[in-house]
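Appendix C: a fully annotated inverse folding record. The material below is reproduced so that readers can follow the format used throughout the book. The structure is listed first as tokens, followed by the designed sequence.
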């Protein structure tokens, strides 16, 4: 049994992490905090009434260190930079759900997130928490940088192709769509019900902070520089991501070869499902799960591959993947608490 804390319990990812961990047989949640919210969790989240007696206060390093073995940071970017060093110095294990430790070049972080970094030491030791690709590194890690929601769907969709045919790829276009919870729980006019309902729009076109994250890890998989054209959209739904990814290739590839590549690559993965030929994934089939569903198609001239990828942005795209990482770090069954 390990003692776990959640910093950022007032947000959707923090809540989702708690709901998963309350059912985990090897975890006891002993600490929760939030910067601007204080009170019993049943007051903050009425759906937790009768399920926990935890009380939320402002983050306190000493209390967190005293009460926890491992801590989830479900906080906005820059907030993790202030909290993580103290936790690591106290020999605590950390799973950070923010973007603070994903990009390995500080200048890239400052360009895309618009803030100073200031923790180069821990940036170097952070392990990117995409279990399907970095499982062996996660086992030994003290600090996990949980992937972003859009990159999770994109990287799982593109990893097999980029790893084995990276040099044949001439361009990648990612048309991504996310539910409103991906923007967090903050009050903002553009996220109001009347602004989102019966509406559909693109935002941060070619300028979203998840684009360099996708570029970085795709290029690592392929040992070849790959850059994506990434366009996110806001869907008028609560949760879920669907990405339609268009990959132009230089050398022709048949559908059976493509399908076999993905089938072998993900054969033993518990949370990636490759759909049969002719079927395409749907958001409602992954909502509330840690699954990533993939669909494949190829053009008549065998030079355009279309990959569709769906996840729940709060589960596989955030809290569920964080728990998956915790399971690997702690030697639990990888799917514990997630199925």
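Designed amino acids, in order:
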């Amino acid at each position: 049994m390990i003692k776990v804390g959640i910093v950022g319990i007032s947000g959707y990812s923090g809540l989702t992490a708690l709901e998963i961990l309350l059912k985990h047989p090897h975890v006891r949640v002993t600490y929760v905090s939030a910067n601007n919210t204080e009170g019993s969790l049943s007051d903050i989240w009425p759906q937790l009434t009768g399920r926990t007696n935890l009380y939320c206060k402002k983050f306190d390093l000493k209390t967190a260190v005293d009460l926890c073995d491992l801590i989830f940071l479900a906080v906005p970017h820059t907030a993790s930079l202030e909290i993580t060093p103290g936790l690591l110095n106290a020999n605590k294990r950390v799973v950070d759900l923010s973007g603070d430790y994903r990009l390995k070049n500080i200048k890239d972080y400052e360009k895309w997130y618009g803030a100073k970094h200031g923790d180069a030491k821990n940036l170097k030791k952070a392990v990117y928490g995409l279990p399907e690709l970095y499982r062996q590194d996660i086992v030994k890690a003290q600090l996990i940088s949980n992937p972003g929601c859009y990159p999770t769907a994109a990287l799982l969709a593109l990893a097999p192709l980029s790893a084995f045919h990276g040099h044949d790829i001439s361009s990648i276009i990612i048309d991504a769509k996310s539910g409103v919870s991906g923007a967090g729980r903050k009050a903002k006019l553009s996220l109001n019900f009347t602004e989102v309902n019966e509406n559909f729009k693109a935002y941060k076109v070619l300028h979203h902070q998840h684009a360099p994250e996708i570029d970085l890890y795709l290029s690592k998989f392929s040992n070849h520089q790959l850059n994506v054209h990434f366009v996110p959209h806001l869907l008028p739904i609560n949760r879920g991501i669907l990405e339609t990814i268009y990959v132009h290739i230089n050398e022709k590839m048949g559908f059976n070869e493509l399908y076999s590549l993905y089938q072998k690559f993900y054969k033993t993965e518990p949370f990636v499902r490759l759909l049969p030929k002719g079927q395409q994934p749907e958001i409602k089939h992954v909502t509330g799960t840690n699954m990533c569903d993939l669909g494949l198609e190829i053009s008549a001239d065998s030079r355009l591959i279309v990959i569709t990828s769906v996840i729940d942005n709060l589960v596989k795209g955030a809290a569920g993947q964080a728990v998956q990482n915790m399971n690997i770090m702690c030697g639990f069954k990888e799917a514990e608490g997630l199925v």
